[in-house]
UniProtKB/TrEMBL annotation:
Name the UniProt record assigns to this protein: Acyl-CoA N-acyltransferase
Pfam family, one: Acetyltransf_3
Domain of life, source organism: Eukaryota
Domain N-acetyltransferase: 34-197
InterPro entries noted in UniProt: Acyl_CoA_acyltransferase, GNAT_dom, Ribosomal_N-acetyltransferase
GO terms, molecular function: protein N-terminal-serine acetyltransferase activity; protein-N-terminal-alanine acetyltransferase activity
Keyword entries, A-Z: Acyltransferase, Transferase
Protein source organism: Schizophyllum amplum
Length: 233
């Protein structure tokens, strides 16, 4: 059962984080992996800007991604996004990553909204409920000082979504990552690597880093988030 699943996350989590439109629950592989893989495997564009996926089966997703990258890392938790307006249908994933209880920081990432739920209320509402839980003071939230958003610098849709929610651009890290598994299906940063590169055949990513800090949150960003939440009802 989901209630007995050990998220292995460094911060406390309720059974769900939700508003009146979406519900986020821990992504328990036995509950969601098969369904998510089946719904996403024929849409590789969902993973163009991401260093993982697609997967053909739930077991492949679990073995290649959920177990090594999520469950073994206490700084990461992945949520299943459920659309409450569609009878709690699985609409995608969202997560916290690069989290530190010592430094009171986390990042919203692993944003993958399934095609049927794109350009709806789902993405905005899912991001907003995680922003509130991260930045609101206990007991409603975690009271963190910094909330990050990182995206491929060419992923303009992801960056635009974050900025609509009140994030501001801090920096662009050039050649920040090597996408594993070669360049197939991955955009990278659009620039070639050296002919004699030690990881020939791969692509690199420039990463845009955006953030909302606690003082931004108190000085207007929370109101921006709430207005977006109401707009996407």
């Amino acid at each position: 059962m989901a209630s007995s699943f050990d998220t292995n996350f460094c911060f406390p989590l309720p059974e769900s984080i939700e508003n009146d439109k979406v519900k986020l629950v821990p992504f328990v592989p036995s509950n969601f992996a098969d369904e998510f893989a089946a719904a996403s495997k024929d849409h590789p564009v969902l993973f163009t800007h991401l260093p993982y996926g697609p997967w053909q089966t739930g077991q492949e997703m679990t073995d290649a991604f959920l177990e090594p990258s999520i469950h073994r890392n206490p700084g990461v938790v992945l949520f299943a996004v459920l659309d409450k307006l569609s009878n709690n249908a699985l609409a995608g994933t969202l997560g916290y990553l690069n989290s530190s209880a010592v430094n009171l920081v986390t990042e919203i990432g692993y944003v993958t909204i399934l095609p049927a739920f794109q350009r709806t209320h789902v993405a905005s509402n899912a991001v907003i409920v995680l922003m509130k839980y991260a930045l609101d003071q206990p007991p409603a939230g975690l009271g963190l000082r910094r909330l990050e958003w990182r995206a491929n610098s060419l992923n303009t849709k992801s960056i635009a979504l974050a900025m609509r929610m009140g994030y501001q651009l801090d920096a662009v890290l050039r050649w920040d990552r090597v996408y594993p598994g070669g360049a197939q299906g991955k955009t990278g940063n659009g620039r070639m690597v050296r002919a004699d590169d030690v990881k020939a055949g791969t692509v690199g990513r420039d990463t845009a880093i955006l953030s909302v800090c606690w003082d931004d949150w108190l000085n207007g960003v929370r109101e921006v988030a709430i207005k977006n939440e109401q707009r996407h009802k």
